[in-house]
Write a structure and sequence with these properties.
The complex is a heterodimer of chains A (381) and B (221). Chain A is α+β, with helices and mostly antiparallel strands. Helices cover 24% and strands 33% of the residues of chain A. Chain A has ten helices and 21 strands. In chain A, helix 5 runs parallel beside helix 6. The chains are: A alpha+beta (381), B mainly alpha (221).
C-alpha cells in the first residue's frame, strides 16, 4: 500500500486492509480515575498515513496519545508499533519515551526558551545515532519554511511560527511515528490557515505514520486518512475516514458536524459557470469552486439532508449531480420521523436523510438500486 | 589589623566552601522533592527544614552529641583520624547544616517553576533523565538556584549558635566574624567588635543585594 503519497480514502476497500499495514500501531488500555472518568480502548491504527483521534474534551484522546508516547504509564496497558513492543506490563516491559523514537508536537509547542530556533532544531538531531545527513536538515527547514527564523530566540516567534518550529524539531529527531496533540488548537483562525498547508505537505512527503489528536471537524476532514471517534473514554469507531463517517449508528451530533466525505481529483474547470469537476470513486461531481490544477486532490463534505433519493433518473430538476448506487444500510433512530439510508456509489458511501414516509412510499430497501442526487456541496478547504 | 583580615577571610572561606559542598546534595534533594513521589518524602521534607525552626544552639548540641567523642558518628570518624569538634571542620559542619534547608527550599522552588512539559518535550527528542536535567531543568532553574546559593552563603556568614557549641571559640582556629564579635564584647573590646561588625555589615549587604537582584530577574523572565 502506498497511502503516504496518495491519500485517497475513498479507494480503500475496507478498514481491515488499512489496519493490516506494514507497521500497525496497537494500543490496549483500561483506566479508571477518580470521578467519573474512565478509558477503555483497544486501538489498531494503520502503519502509514494520518490517523485522527477525534473527540471532545474529556473523551480521553490526549491520554491515549500520552500513553502511546510513554509520557504516561497506565498499569496493564499494552502498546506496540509493528514488532516493537513499548509497553507490556504482563512481561514487565516499559520502554521510556526517549527510547521510543517518537516525534511529538504539543498544543503549546514547548520550544525550549533558553535556546534559539536553530538550537531547538538541533536538540533532537544531536542526540541521534547515527547522525542524520546534513541534507535532511536543509530539506526539513525548507519544508517548514524556517530559513529566516533560525537565529531568532523563541520568544520572538508568532504562534504559527512556534508550531512550525516544533513540527520541524520533531521531524529532525528522525522518528518512526509522529504524534500531534491538537497542534492548531491554541492558534487563531488566521494562524490555523497558515500552519494547515504545512501539515498537508507533511502528509504528502512523510513516510511514517502520524497520529493526530483534535476536536475540530474541519481539521479532521482535511487531514484524516483513518478516523477514530472517541466519546467519554470509548472508541465509537475506528475506520478509514469515509467508512467511519458513513456508519449507520453514528451519533446524530457527530453526523451533523461531519456529514459525508467525497474525495477526488480535479478533472476540469468550467470558467463560464465557475464549476469544478471532480472524479471520485463512483463518478464525476460538479461543484461551485475556483479553478484548481488538474489532478489536485480535493475533499468535499455533503450533509445527509442535502442528498435526495430517487428510484429513477429524473429530468427537469436543478440538481447537477445524480449518481446511481445500491442501498447497503438503513437506520431509523427511535421514534423519529426521518431515517438514514446509506447508498454505495462506486466505492464511496453516501448517507442520506429522508422521512420514513418517503422511504416507504418509494419502496426502498437494502440492495435496491437508486439515484442519489446531491443538492449542494460544501467544500472543505 | 592582621587578625581582622584573617577572621574575615576565614569566614568567607568557610561560607563559600559550605555553600559549594551543600549545593550538589541540596539541588538533588530539591529535585527529588519537586519532581518525584517517594515513600518518606514528607518526613525528609520536615527533617531538612528543622534547623530553620529549632534554636541554632540546640542544633549545635545535637551535632556535638552526634559527632563528639563517644557519639555514634564521632567514634567512626575518630577511627579515621578525623576530628570535627573544636576544629575548623566543626565550623564548616555547623554552617553546612544550618544553610542546607535554605539551599533545598530554593532549589525545590526553582525546579518546580520549570515547566515539566519542556522536560517531556526533551524526552520525546531522545534525552534521558540525566540529559534532561543538565540540558533543560538546570539551565532554566539557574537563576533560582543561584539565588539559593547566595542565600545559603549569606546565612553561612552569620552562623553563630550551632557553631559556638560544636566548634567553640578558639582564637586562630574557629573564630568567625560572628563568633569574634561576641568574643570581643565579652572581652570588653568595643573597638575590635565594631571593626568586625562593619565587615559583617558590608558582606551581608553585598550578598543580600546580589540575591535580590538575581531573584527579581528571575521574576521578569
Amino acid at each position: 500500500m502506498n497511502e503516504a503519497s496518495t491519500p485517497a480514502v475513498a479507494n480503500r476497500p475496507s478498514s481491515l486492509a488499512a489496519a493490516n499495514g506494514p507497521a500497525t500501531i496497537a494500543l490496549d488500555l483500561q483506566l479508571r480515575r477518580s470521578g467519573s472518568f474512565s478509558l477503555d480502548a483497544s486501538l489498531r491504527l494503520p502503519g502509514s498515513g494520518i490517523s485522527v483521534l477525534f473527540g471532545h474534551s474529556g473523551s480521553g484522546k490526549t491520554t491515549l496519545l500520552r500513553v502511546l508516547a510513554g509520557l504516561e504509564r497506565v498499569p496493564g496497558a499494552r502498546v506496540s508499533l509493528g514488532d516493537q513492543t513499548w509497553q507490556d506490563d504482563a512481561r514487565g516491559l516499559f520502554v521510556p519515551p526517549e527510547r521510543r523514537r517518537i516525534g511529538m508536537v504539543f498544543q503549546d509547542a514547548r520550544l525550549f526558551p533558553h535556546l534559539t530556533v536553530l538550537e531547538n532544531l538541533h536538540y533532537g538531531l544531536d542526540r541521534l545515532k547515527p547522525a542524520l545527513p546534513a541534507r535532511s536538515f536543509d530539506d526539513t527547514v525548507a519544508l517548514l519554511n524556517l530559513g529566516a527564523l533560525l537565529q531568532r530566540g523563541v520568544a520572538h516567534l508568532s504562534g504559527g511560527e512556534r508550531q512550525r518550529v516544533a513540527i520541524a524539531r520533531a521531524l529532525l529527531s528522525k522518528p518512526c511515528l509522529l504524534l500531534l496533540d491538537e497542534p492548531l488548537a491554541s492558534l487563531d483562525q488566521a494562524l490555523k490557515s497558515e500552519v494547515l498547508p504545512y501539515l498537508e505537505r507533511l502528509h504528502e512527503e512523510l513516510r511514517i505514520p502520524v497520529v493526530y489528536v483534535t476536536h475540530s471537524p474541519a481539521e479532521t476532514l482535511r487531514l484524516a486518512d483513518h478516523l477514530v471517534l472517541l466519546s467519554e473514554g470509548r472508541v465509537l469507531r475506528s475506520a478509514p475516514l469515509a467508512e467511519a463517517l458513513s456508519g449507520m449508528d453514528l451519533p446524530e451530533a457527530l453526523r451533523e458536524e461531519f456529514g459525508n466525505v467525497m474525495e477526488g481529483s480535479v478533472v476540469s474547470h468550467d470558467s463560464q459557470y465557475g464549476l469544478l469537476t471532480l472524479a471520485f470513486g463512483g463518478g464525476l461531481l460538479r461543484l461551485p469552486h475556483r479553478a484548481l490544477p488538474q489532478g489536485t486532490r480535493l475533499r468535499v463534505r455533503i450533509r445527509a439532508s442535502d442528498i435526495t433519493v430517487a428510484v429513477e433518473q429524473t429530468r427537469g430538476t436543478s440538481m447537477l449531480n445524480a449518481f446511481t448506487g445500491i442501498i447497503d444500510g438503513e437506520f431509523t433512530p427511535d421514534g423519529a420521523a426521518h431515517m438514514l439510508v446509506r447508498i454505495r456509489v462506486g466505492t464511496t458511501p453516501l448517507v442520506a436523510r429522508l422521512t420514513r414516509l418517503s422511504h416507504d412510499q418509494l419502496g426502498l430497501h437494502k440492495g435496491r438500486t437508486v439515484w442519489a442526487m446531491v443538492k449542494s456541496v460544501a467544500v472543505d478547504s | 589589623m592582621p587578625e581582622l583580615l584573617e577572621v574575615t577571610l576565614f569566614t568567607i572561606g568557610i561560607a563559600a566552601l559550605a555553600t559549594l559542598l551543600i549545593m550538589p546534595p541540596g539541588v538533588w534533594l530539591g529535585w527529588l522533592l519537586a519532581r518525584r513521589e517517594w515513600p518518606g518524602k514528607a518526613l525528609v521534607e520536615t527533617l531538612v527544614s528543622l534547623p530553620l525552626v529549632i534554636p541554632p544552639v540546640a542544633t549545635g548540641l545535637l551535632l556535638l552529641k552526634l559527632l563528639g567523642r563517644n557519639g555514634p558518628l564521632g567514634d567512626f570518624l575518630a577511627s579515621w583520624n578525623i576530628e570535627i569538634v573544636f576544629t575548623w571542620k566543626g565550623v564548616l559542619v555547623a554552617t553546612m547544616v544550618m544553610s542546607f534547608p535554605l539551599m533545598v527550599r530554593s532549589a525545590r522552588v526553582a525546579i518546580e517553576e520549570v515547566d515539566r512539559g519542556l522536560e517531556e518535550a526533551a524526552a520525546m527528542l531522545g534525552a534521558g533523565p540525566l540529559d534532561r536535567f543538565w540540558s533543560i531543568t538546570l539551565p532554566l532553574a539557574r537563576r533560582g538556584l543561584l539565588a539559593g546559593c547566595v542565600l545559603s552563603f549569606a546565612r553561612a556568614l552569620g552562623e553563630f549558635g550551632a557553631t559556638v557549641v560544636l566548634a567553640g571559640m578558639i582564637p586562630g582556629r574557629t573564630i568567625t566574624l560572628a563568633l569574634g564579635i561576641y568574643q570581643q564584647i565579652q572581652l570588653g573590646d568595643d573597638h575590635a567588635a565594631l571593626g568586625l561588625l562593619c565587615v559583617s555589615l558590608a558582606l551581608a549587604f553585598g550578598s543580600v543585594w546580589l540575591g535580590n537582584r538575581l531573584s527579581s530577574k528571575k521574576a521578569r523572565a
